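Today's session is about reading a structure prediction critically. Students often jump straight to the picture, but the first step is always the sequence itself: look for stretches that repeat, for charged clusters, for runs of hydrophobic residues. Only then move on to the predicted structure, which in these notes is written as discrete structure tokens rather than atom positions. Here is the chain we will use throughout the hour.
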Amino acid sequence: AEPTAMNLAMPKDTKDPNLENKVKESGSLTLMLGKANIIYYYFGNDPTKMQTSGYKDVRKLILDKKKSTPVDDLFIIIKPDKDATYKNAVDVLDEMTIDDITRYAMVDATPEEYKLIQQTEKADGIQ
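Below is the predicted structure for this chain, in token form.
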């Protein structure tokens, strides 16, 4: 087999806020990977509207968002927290391929989001 190369489009590394990539709030879905195989998710930019799901239900969640969002607006943000497992991160990345999601990114959760996850886990008795 001959080695092949793949083109990778990366955003420009810039600190100019006017040039940063923007995601439409109506098209975004944020998946935060927590411990105990739980996914915390919210639509748009308001993490206080966070809900929970399991990995067996994440496909339906993604496909429902895909059906209700114009293809150019859909963007999924994946945020594994420090308690997420490597397997969970790989499972969600596999789901992007299975569900034919072409616009997604894996980034760190904000301190506010992590605090919300911890509060939810404590309230639900998740260890």
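Discussion point for the tutorial: The longest helix spans residues 111-124.
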